[in-house]
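Hi V.,

You were right to ask for the full record rather than a summary. Here it is.
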Amino acid sequence: MSNVLTDRHCSNLTLITGGARSGKSVFAEKLAAKSQLPVIYLATMEEVQSDPEAAERIRRHRERRPREWKTIERARRVHEVVDEFSADQSVCIFDCISLYVSNILLDGYSEDPLAMQLLEKETADAAAKLLTAIASKPNVHFIMVTNEVGAGIVPENGLARLYRDLLGVTNQIFAQAAHEVWLSAVGLQLKLKPQ
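Predicted structure:
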């Protein structure tokens, strides 16, 4: 997957990255509200009834959003949703790439090396399709949220290592394509691109 970086540039794409609880989503929501355009909130976290903690997180996120924002919850094949967006001016918060990659990984994970190669290709294809869909909607400004997961120690198990690698490369793909990239830490934001 290391050779999948794209030369695509999306002038309608902002990427916000950072660690857990760094203020990424709140910052994305502030940027969207500041635009004074209609907002679409594209959420990639699946609600699983057997995980009450995750369900509570989803509930809090839903409650935080203004009522007039349109929420779409989609865990996979998100490019198909973006393809259906209106051509009207709007803002789309995509929260988040981290869960999107996780959803793809968990659907096909196996310790078999061939399965891992297929997952690398599937993740790269999903990123490429999503970037193509974003580029096809120039009147929609996309604010994409993702997590930085490579700053800690090397995970002890293969699933966690593969996730770290897949997300790290996917983040690079979107950062390279984005017009604007922000790093969020301790509730503060630092603009990385353009400098």
